[in-house]
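input
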Amino acid sequence: MIKNEADPVRIPSGTVHRLISLLQGALTLLKVDIDNNTIEHIGVMVHRAMSMQYRSFHTPEHIFDLADPSDAHSTLAAIFHDIVYFQVDDGFHKEIEEILKPYILIDNNTISIRKKIRDTDRAFHGTAAIFGFKEGQILSPFAGLNEFLSALLMNSLLGDRVKDVDLLIATAEIEMTIPFRTPDKEGRFPAEILDIRLRKTNAKFSLGLTDDQIGRAVVSAVIMSNRDVHNFAEEDPARFLDNTWKLLPESNPELHFHGLYTIKSYSTALMKMEGFLTHLKPETVFQQYKAYPEQSEYDDLIKKTSSNLIIAGGYLGIKMISAAILLALAEMSGGDAPMSFFMGEINPADEWSRLTTHLPGTPDCQHERKNVLYRLLKHGRSNSSDFDLQNSPLSLFIYCSLDEQQQEDCINVSRELIKGERSAHSYMDSIPGRLVKPIAQAASVIAFTRQQRLLEISESFS
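output
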């Protein structure tokens, strides 16, 4: 059957197809005359870059969470804002590196902007103006490196086809996705600073935007930024923790190797994430510009974020104690080992092959009546992960065995052990013996080659 040209085109449901269709739709809204082969090439490049081996959160699916197909600028920003993730990808995809090479220097994983970039290079100078970056500047992965290079890549690819004013707005939206920024020395928040830069860039490049259009562009950028971090204000903490568990392997690549990552690497990953979340200020997560979002809505976002950070910090703290006890047992019985050697596989052929099967029953939990943490440990996060159990029976056992002060003390000494600031023996002496004995006994069943030494450790805490 011959297809009628007037019939709508049905897009296959594959991720790369959806991504190309999304890009095509945005360019159509902007009335950009660009051939399908070029659109396909760019879409495939984005898909390939965001499907790199170590990505688990900033993947192509993240684009679909952010993009608004009815808004061309936010769609372009969503498509390109995470295409560069230098520290997670361990560099650049080859094709992306070729495009960025004229603009950057890489020296031992330190990236700086080249000097003497020609004045006629509007893609670079426009991007740099919106980000407030200068030639010769060293780029920090925690202060816009990835976002700047992502926006520069977008402008380099589309600069000859898309109007400068449209790229300016999309670039502003990408700039606002730089996360967790505090006010500058003059007390100005990121949205206020972006407003100033937009006005200067508008004048410098004679783009003709009105004050009202600039204001709307900043609001759009704030919408994009807040959408990018919306999970911090999840109603259900279990869903917030899902995204936290997706981020862990991105900053700790060894967790991608199921069955191979060690107790030490897992402990370190938990410690870093716990430290980050417990020190993160809720006010730096969501952005506000003039009357958007309304104060009541903004206050609600901050309230939910604060609650999620407290719960996540507590959850990670208890998980960190669990990992630290296993780390100390490993070091005292023969040295670090794969996590699965002590805990058993995530999905063993039989329950007997899992450490938690050999723990005594969970004690009556004095915390059960009052908080979400018990539910999260007992029933789990919303979804499973490839490197960790969805629920946490070992951590639940520990949680219900300690009062709040003991938990705090154990978290502090666990951090010292993981950092190497406290020996395994000193650590074991500093935590309640009623934790060590049953966990050592259970570990002796699973880590069978160390059974004798683990039982000796257990007996020493009788």
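quick obs: The chain has 21 helices and three strands.
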